[in-house]
Structure of Receptor-like serine/threonine-protein kinase:
Amino acid sequence: MEGNWSRLLNLLLLLLSPTAFAAGVADTLGKGSNITGGGTLVSANGTFTMGFFSLGPSTNKRYYLGIWFSVSPDAVCWVANGLRPLSDNTGVLVLGDTGSLLLRDGFGQVAWSSNSTIASSSSMEAQLLETGNLVVRDQGSGNILLWQSFDHPSNTLLSGMKVGKNLWNGAEWHLTSWSSADDPSPGPYRRVLDTSGLPDFVLLEGNITKYRTGPWNGESFSGATEVLGYKDRLITLGVTNSSGEISYGYTAKPGVWTRLVVMDTGVVNRFVWENSRWNNIFEGPRDPCDEYGKCGAFGVCDVSSVASSFCRCLRGFSDASPSPWNQDTLPCRRNVKLQCSSDGGTTDGFVRVKGVKLPDTHNASVDMGITGEECKARCHANCSCVAYAAADIRGGGVPSGCVMWMDNIVDLRYVDHGQDLYLRLAKSELDKDFPLAAVVAPVASTVAALALLLLIWWRRTKTKHNASDGPWSPTMGDRSFDLPTVKMATGDFSQSHVIGEGGFAVVYKGELPDGRKVAVKRLKQSALTEKGKRDFAREVDVMANVRHGNLLRLLAYCNEDGERILIYAFMPNKSLDLYIFGEPSDRARLNWRLRLDIVHGVAHGVAYLHQGSEECVVHRDLKPSNVLLDDNWKPKIADFNTAKLFIKDQPDQSDLTIVVSPFLDPKDKIQVMVFSPKWQFFVKEYKEYNLAKDSKVL
């Protein structure tokens, strides 16, 4: 409702402005009519305005004809004369006798033309539609469309526009960045729909691929799954794949104003107008793993990795470089050659790679008419097929269609809610998952017993020789950072980096050597009691075993020189309590739709903790300040230092703590709430305890 009132207010101001009255707020330009420097066309409901605007310094202003959102004149969506700016505000736009729109400068020279010519007709008109599309039509010939601005995009994709290719005449629709923020001439970056395999939204710099969203899978592009979090309330996506054209576009929901922009920096942003400002809800490339082909053939990129490189080889492949992991692009080499003959005989099989952006489909074959099982059989019978995946996963049903990669796979990365890829491996590689239990079981039992004894001895020895760590040390050793790295990231724990502080810890904003922004939680020395160390180890161990889009991801920790430090992904929108209990201006930023999305996200996170992870985790301190919000307002549950791990379906009361008031008589009996896991929720059971026997005073 707030957004609707804001739009109505902006529209009212627009309608009451002197410029609007002077121009007549017309949306149509008839034959022989013109628009001069101060005139405009305004769409029927006032959403879009077309007119002249200027860019550049005051000493060298350049003038352009363009279309913009009426509430935000800086949000220019289309420019006519980007290549030929006018030197002053004396330009004139006229609809000529032959149906062409002509932009003339003060000397009468044509700076731009729509080149839409027909025989002279008195019923021709140009109209700015409510979609932001400028059209030229001949009303006397059945309202024939002669020309439209949507066929000639600039740097912005609006609702109802499309990018793609006309298969009949070869015409392409693509977005082109501006050269700079104050120069709308075509820049180096283009956003095109690659139609060589499955439709894929690609960012090019010149002719070099910089970034792919991943192929279209029926509901989204497989590597841009953020859209799944907002498409139901904002936009409807669609890909047209017919004999005449392959194209992508979107339709905004009623009352939603949004635009997809290729910035002059080579970044693609989606903006949505909410609460009287443009909010950026998507950005690509997002991180180093979005760089095209970063990890080479058969390499996969994992942005959550804390190693010096984000890359690693897929299962069944090894890094063939002389110094492992010293470069971003890995020469991954297959460990065991595939066993496949030209007559179709093979013992190869497939392993599932979960949750990825599908590889580039340039070297893939696509068949939308077969099932998943048929796809597997077809790939298995083709010795050149190294991987396959479903081409269509929409609707949550059985995946259908088939895409098969030949010879190699490139540009693979992990993403939240990604697709599954099936990678071809030799039988001996697959057999590593299935040891002969009857043969190895006795040996395994012996080894396990020895390993347990060795572990006990090692833990005791470690405790003696590393007394500063104490008994409460986390086990997530492969994600530990040394203290100098943490100090460098936070400016040696500079006060200027502090973004939050509580009774037990200080939180710093930091930046890792690879450029990632992180939140660094440093426990205060006063908090390093035995309980504090136990809570620290619990949080590390809990977070090491959970992975979900609505849980704050623990990137690493530091347990060195008496320090206890946790390193998390940085959440730019801070915590939920700020928007519930904070200033009115902050509270107003959460509309009811967004609040509902946050509730759903938290519920999904809690459901995963209780039932979706390997162990059942009870948070025990879930509150608004422990729900953080990323740049897309997606909630992330944080602060697991009081969390409790349960064996699934078995209640645990072993560490029951009863907080006793000093005003209670120890002879009294009280009822306390005991939480135990039942079904998908944790239910309260009231039980009676004798204070004299059962209490623990905190």
About this structure: Residues 436-465 form one domain. The CA atoms of residues 100 and 116 lie 5 Å apart. The chain has a mean pLDDT of 79. The chain is about 20% helix and 35% strand.
